What we know:
Two copies of one chain form a homodimer.
Chain A: H1 15-23, H2 28-37, H3 43-48, H4 56-68, E1 72-76, E2 84-88, H5 90-93, H6 96-109, H7 114-143, H8 155-171
Antiparallel strand pairs in A: 1-2
The structure holds a DNA duplex.
Amino acid sequence: MAADKEASAHRSGCPINLTLEVLGDKWSLIIVRDMMFGNRRHFRELLAQNEEGIASNILADRLRRLMAEGVISKKDDPSHKQKAIYSLTEKGIELLPVFAMIGAWGRKWLPVTEALSIRAQLLEEGGPDLWEEFMEELRQEHLGIPAKPRSGPGVRERLRAAYEEVMARGRAPA
Amino acid sequence: MAADKEASAHRSGCPINLTLEVLGDKWSLIIVRDMMFGNRRHFRELLAQNEEGIASNILADRLRRLMAEGVISKKDDPSHKQKAIYSLTEKGIELLPVFAMIGAWGRKWLPVTEALSIRAQLLEEGGPDLWEEFMEELRQEHLGIPAKPRSGPGVRERLRAAYEEVMARGRAPA
DNA sequence: AAAACCGGTTGCGAAATAAAATCAGTTCGA
DNA sequence: TCGAACTGATTTTATTTCGCAACCGGTTTT
């Protein structure tokens, strides 16, 4: 229960190592990915809509750990008494560039499917400017930062639209 | 060649997920890090000089997996019959930007030690130009690409020198 | 009132992980 | 020549984690 209280039981003070101690498993980043790109904010959304089929006990465990590490936070949903809303913290939002790089590497070297990698491609092509725009959007959604007036659709919406388009092309190839 | 033959037992075709299936554990990236930044090329070097204290069976297992995934390769040491030399492949070398981003995140958000994070800082400050220079250096060392004539010390040497300097400062603070 | 939904918990067998001891071939010094 | 030390590992054993399925008390919807 108490989790890690103090316990600087770190293997080393290397940034790579410490990051692996926090995120170095097969599920933690999957959950953050779903929150960030899929806008899943509730336990059941993360559970049922997850592409990889995460188990509920693993999900509960990782949400607990990510909270303890300060990557996400949790609050009650005012509209629904036993519903919890999970949010990314600034620490979690700033994982976006890491996702962009991992996505780019995976897209280049692993057998990705086109539909699921179109977002990684756009993120890669958009570069740091697009990342910053998306992070600002995430800050509004997850941290409640007031929105500066923007014109068109948000980054997530653009990524989603691109995904839909690929799916449509896939169903009716030219 | 053999590599992924059959067995598309992948959880999904998402680039993030596929990357996690390859590298999503607490040790794989540690080993690649040591090969890349510490220039460890032999089993014993990776085992004995590892900062985090990896166990020999885990090291052997991860080296096997990373080879199967094509991230590293192995060849005999001509000077020593039962000595093996491990090398990064191009696929492994191109993990450098991922390390740079992970290192930057870890340095910002986790309790890193100064000495062990100075390299991450330089890599972050150097930006993509420095990354490309380092990757070119790695291609020479690991892939046998002929060196284009360079002037000063290499990137790894500069990173190492910065580390030594921090250590020296630590011992004799101003 | 009944059914569906909510965020989880529990139990269990299988698999992965990790520490320590061990191994066979190689090299090297005495 | 012999044996100790070194090489890249494997084996053994114990512990932890994973993944599945069933379940839970409370809440909301029908």
